[in-house]
Amino acid sequence: MEFKTFSNEIVFFDLETNVPNKTGQHFHILEFGAIIVCPRTLEEVESFTTLIQPKDLSVASLRSSRSDGITRDKVADAPSFEDVAEKIYGLLNGRIWAGHNIRRFDCVRIKEAFAEIGKAAPEPSGIIDSLGLLSDKFGKRAGNMKMASLAAYFGLGVQKHRSLDDVRMNLEVLKHCATVLFLESTLSNQLEGKWQSSSKIMTRSRSSYQTAQRAMPYSKGSLGKMTQNVKNLLSKAQGNQALQSLIKHSHSLLR
């Protein structure tokens, strides 16, 4: 079957897998989720998610510590990877791949899964790995830079570790980080020296469940409006080259 390519479209995707706990045990995909994002508007235009039944059901946990976690019962009647491989290929092939830590994990698992069923793996037109990108551009201000930490930093809720929820959270985290970097790069004189006097918001640590205060460079409730303004500016970015990073666009608009 012939597939079209969409070299300028971005597909955020995420995999949920088992956690190997025995010597020689491999990762098995238990869930795939993806959203296709228009590079001009940063709006979600298509989504897809599916649980996936591993060949060996015993790799899936009997129970999950999360209320909506993936268990053996949930994947027992799910389609196999081979059953959904064509759909996944069509979503990924020829698009810009985006995700958190996808270079070292999700991309590798996708190639392994396609190799296991003897089919060619999809190829990206570019990769946006938000872990490396934000570690470089945003720094360690959000702690360990895991998605859960970034989401907590911006008050986006608790990471659910379900594929579709996580990719949508990933997109929102990128928008928020881009907004802060945009403010810092264009309003540096106004913001300098005002960090300590800025308003504070309350956040809750997922690990300790203790409430703490943190100084932020914007007033409460204003970040969403600024994110929308930056998104509108980003939507005007045109060019023939593939989008290399959302952050790079936000910096280049005022040059």
From TrEMBL:
Keywords of this entry: Exonuclease, Hydrolase, Magnesium, Metal-binding, Nuclease
CDD domains: DEDDh
Matches recorded under SUPFAM superfamilies: Ribonuclease H-like
GO-annotated molecular function: 3'-5' exonuclease activity; metal ion binding; nucleic acid binding
Database matches in InterPro entries: Ribonucl_H (IPR013520), RNaseH-like_sf (IPR012337), RNaseH_sf (IPR036397)
Cofactor(s) demanded: Mg(2+)
Domain Exonuclease: 9-183
Pfam families reported for this sequence: RNase_T (PF00929)
The keyword Repressor appears for this protein: no
Stated name of the protein: Exonuclease domain-containing protein
Species this chain originates from: Brassica oleracea
